[in-house]
Design brief:
6 strands; single chain; 281 residues; 14 helices; two-stranded antiparallel ribbon
């Protein structure tokens, strides 16, 4: 047992600070009180605090409150329309409010796009060094893969890196993939460069007719091949310039909820009437 005066002497000579009894290291208590329920009660408090309401939910709640009840600080309010419907695009019958949850997903999708397009970025380097691939951050990035698949498509250069059947490379077709001519066509490892006639620098029409159906051939012929060999690169077809943006990813994630496809909402918003009447309709 070390005496108190010896502790003070060591502390003064080594210039050390006394650690409080409730100190934690890596989430666990440094000193055990003999009651594990009390020592680890802070974990339950943090978990319950996160489950009650998240930051995104708080932001959405504040926006809803301001929209439906802007003149009062307390009390309830009557919501005439569901929040999900108000967050729809105006062309789908909503008001175009940005849901905090979907906005957050759009920002995460930007990181997913950077990974998919193999972009060299200091942000990615820092993220890889800071977080492990099994962390919640990388799991969230992986979950956005389905959203990226809706707008990511290869721009054909030399066709060396693009798998004909697996990779997206035809923007005019569903899922950006061609359809085989019939079920007997082997769907194996074939790259796009094998479909190009090197002598004419044009598509091999004979091979195309053997492999794909008429709709796929028509769509493939719309793809202009570069005059000089270039590398294949991933582009964002949602944007006319092929560049990814958080705004376009957010719009792509928006799906019309209970929207009437017969109603021409763009005509409604162009009517020369009071905005309140438009919202009432």
């Amino acid at each position: 047992m070390i005496q108190s005066h010896q502790k003070r002497r060591l502390k003064d000579e080594l210039q050390m600070k006394k650690i409080p009894e409730n100190a934690h290291y890596l989430g666990a208590s440094l000193f055990s009180s003999g009651r594990r329920t009390r020592d680890f009660s802070f974990l339950q408090d943090k978990l319950e605090a996160r489950l009650k309401v998240g930051i995104c939910n708080t932001l959405d709640a504040a926006t809803r409150w301001f929209w439906w009840n802007p003149k009062k600080d307390k009390g309830g309010f009557l919501a005439w329309k569901a929040w999900e419907q108000l967050c729809c695009l105006r062309i789908h019958g909503g008001l175009g409010f940005r849901s905090a949850k979907k906005s957050n997903k759009a920002f995460i999708a930007k990181i997913t796009w950077m990974v998919a397009s193999k972009r060299i970025s200091l942000c990615l380097v820092a993220l890889r060094n800071r977080s492990k691939y099994a962390s919640n951050t990388w799991k969230a990035v992986k979950r956005m893969k389905s959203l990226i698949n809706k707008g990511a498509c290869f721009l054909v250069g030399d066709g060396v890196l693009i798998n004909v059947w697996r990779d997206p490379w035809i923007p005019w077709l569903s899922n950006f993939n061609p359809n085989p001519k019939n079920e007997s066509i082997p769907i194996g490892p074939r790259v796009v460069t094998t479909l190009i006639d090197v002598t004419t620098n044009f598509w091999n029409l004979t091979l195309l007719s053997e492999l794909f159906d008429a709709n796929s051939i028509e769509a493939i012929l719309k793809i202009m091949l570069p005059a000089s060999p270039q590398e294949d690169r991933l582009i964002w077809v949602v944007d006319p310039k092929g560049k990814f943006s958080v705004k376009s990813a957010f719009k792509l994630s928006q799906s019309p909820i209970m929207a009437d496809p017969v109603v021409d909402w763009s005509t409604l918003w162009k009517l020369k009437i009071h905005d309140r009447l438009k919202m009432f309709i």
